[in-house]
């Protein structure tokens, strides 16, 4: 059997309350539901609470306390010499490219400034790319990711006048599939949908309110998922392809969707389950079991080793990976994940000092959980404990409980945390040259 194509889809800012196979009641997502029906759907999959820490974590397989991208830092907007340094950060794309995969990325990056590092995507392991640049300070057109998007490719950056960004990205990936159908492919698709600003879509140009536009954006995202799957079908590659669908964090806080009979507020940048426990679906006809719903634990550090394992590749011996491969579970060889706990941490802006970009605090707030109990650590101390089996909305704090089972769960989770450093790391990078738009560090 040939090595599988891998399509990794990462939706921007969308919680389970907007995916119908995950219990959402205010929307229908038939193409995503079909992936779940034909594959494995995880109920306990953790991202980080916000964009930057999530993306650095899945790319490297390391927790934020190790790779240092604990807080949000929008490199094209703020600069200050900070960047996701390919000399310091090994990505799964580099490993798969070296193993013979054709590699492509489309969508949102935002952790390098393409004006300063035009070959950043290639250095991170992608043969080709089609990326929204993120807002580049001083370049107003670059703020657009939807209508008239400003996009960077191997040929440089430009505005795609009259076009809808998500379509540009999808068309690029489908073209890449066609041109590389004879070799295994890695397609990384960190979508710009469904992040604000709320917008109309080509399918629903009359949407008016923010909620109408949000629903239109979710439906269009689902349609694009269907388009990509259909493209693999048309190329007779569907049974050679594993599709992974997930989201980078919960929905924006202004949104409320009903799930399993109750309203769920968007949890982006929070440690609640609505902020970090994401839709996570893996589909691969003939390889991945169909119709399986599992409570096996996984978090985004596991994506790196899982992709490498599925591709039959090997990272460099000196690489440090915190995650564990889910490949045995996904291929039906095992029934559970190798994890006892999963972790989420990191949100809000980093700080800039005379040393460069650093974590906002010495020890970031975090949440660690097993299949039932969840411990919140706030201001460096265990602060909240919830039994997610009886209290899925996390309303009852059991941190002071003397119940023997609850107390044992608390001590067990605390013990797991004690293996982490007492101080979080800072982003590892050699500063780029100073630019006029850079935020300046404080003076002496």
Describe the structure.
This protein has 444 residues and is of the alpha/beta class. It is built from twelve helices and 18 strands. The longest helix has 25 residues, at 210-234.
- How much of the sequence lies in strands comes to 15-25%
List unreliable stretches of 5+ residues: none
Strand arrangement, major sheet: 6-5-4-3-7-1-8-11-2-12
Q: Nearest-angstrom radius of gyration?
A: 21 Å
Mean pLDDT: 97
Structural class: alpha/beta
- Please state the oligomeric state of the protein chains shown: single chain
Helix content: 10-25%
User: Separation of termini?
Assistant: 62 Å
Give a summary of the structure in a few sentences:
This protein has 444 residues and is α/β, with parallel strands linked by helices. Helix content is 24%, strand content 21%.
Please give a handful of descriptors for the protein shown.
alpha/beta, four-stranded antiparallel beta sheet, 444 residues, globular, ten-stranded mixed beta sheet, single chain, 18 strands
Topology:
Blueprint lengths: L4 E7 L18 H8 L2 E7 L4 H10 L3 H4 L7 H4 L13 H7 L3 E7 L11 H4 L4 E5 L17 E4 L2 E4 L5 H15 L5 E6 L19 H25 L6 E7 L8 E4 L2 E4 L7 H4 L3 E4 L8 E8 L3 H8 L16 H4 L11 E4 L5 E3 L2 E3 L7 E4 L3 E6 L2 E7 L16 H14 L27
Parallel strand pairs: 1-7, 1-8, 2-12, 3-4, 3-7
Antiparallel strand pairs: 2-11, 4-5, 5-6, 8-11, 9-10, 13-16, 14-15, 16-17, 17-18
């Amino acid at each position: 059997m040939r090595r599988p194509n891998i399509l990794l889809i990462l939706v921007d800012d969308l919680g389970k309350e907007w995916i119908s196979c995950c219990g959402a009641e205010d929307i229908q997502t038939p193409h995503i539901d079909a992936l779940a029906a034909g594959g494995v759907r995880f109920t306990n999959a953790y991202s980080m609470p916000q964009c930057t820490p999530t993306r650095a974590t899945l790319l490297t397989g390391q927790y934020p306390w190790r790779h240092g991208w604990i807080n949000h830092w929008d490199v094209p907007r703020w600069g200050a010499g900070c960047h996701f340094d390919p000399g310091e950060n090994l990505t799964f794309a580099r490993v798969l490219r070296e193993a013979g995969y054709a590699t492509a990325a489309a969508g949102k990056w935002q952790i390098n400034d393409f004006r300063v590092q035009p070959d950043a995507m290639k250095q991170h392991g992608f043969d080709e790319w089609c990326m929204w640049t993120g807002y580049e300070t001083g370049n107003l057109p670059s703020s657009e990711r939807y209508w008239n998007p400003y996009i960077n490719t191997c040929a440089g950056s430009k505005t795609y006048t009259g076009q809808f960004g998500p379509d540009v990205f999808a068309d690029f990936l489908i073209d890449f599939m066609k041109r590389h159908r004879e070799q295994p492919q890695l397609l990384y698709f960190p979508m710009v949908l469904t992040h604000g600003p709320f917008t109309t879509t080509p399918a629903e140009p009359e949407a008016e309110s923010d909620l109408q536009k949000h629903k239109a954006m979710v439906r269009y995202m689902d349609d694009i998922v269907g388009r990509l799957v259909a493209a693999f079908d048309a190329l007779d590659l569907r049974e050679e392809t594993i599709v992974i669908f997930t989201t980078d964090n919960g929905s924006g806080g202004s949104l409320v969707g009903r799930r399993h009979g109750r309203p769920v507020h968007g949890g982006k940048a929070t440690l609640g389950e609505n902020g970090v426990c994401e839709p996570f679906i893996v589909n691969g006809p003939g390889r991945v079991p169909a119709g399986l719903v599992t409570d096996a634990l996984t978090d985004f550090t596991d994506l790196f080793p899982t992709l490498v394992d599925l591709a039959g590749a090997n990272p460099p011996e000196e690489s440090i990976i915190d995650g564990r491969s889910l490949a045995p579970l996904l291929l039906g060889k095992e029934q559970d994940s190798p994890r006892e706990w999963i972790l989420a941490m990191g949100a809000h802006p980093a700080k800039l000092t005379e040393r460069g970009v650093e974590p906002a605090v010495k020890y970031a707030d975090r949440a660690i959980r097993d299949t039932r109990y969840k411990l919140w650590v706030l201001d460096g101390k265990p602060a909240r404990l919830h039994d997610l089996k009886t209290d899925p909305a996390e309303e009852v704090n059991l941190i002071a409980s003397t119940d023997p089972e609850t107390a044992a769960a608390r001590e067990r989770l605390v013990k797991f945390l004690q293996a982490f450093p007492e101080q979080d790391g800072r982003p590892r990078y050699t500063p780029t040259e100073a630019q006029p738009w850079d935020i300046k560090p404080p003076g002496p």
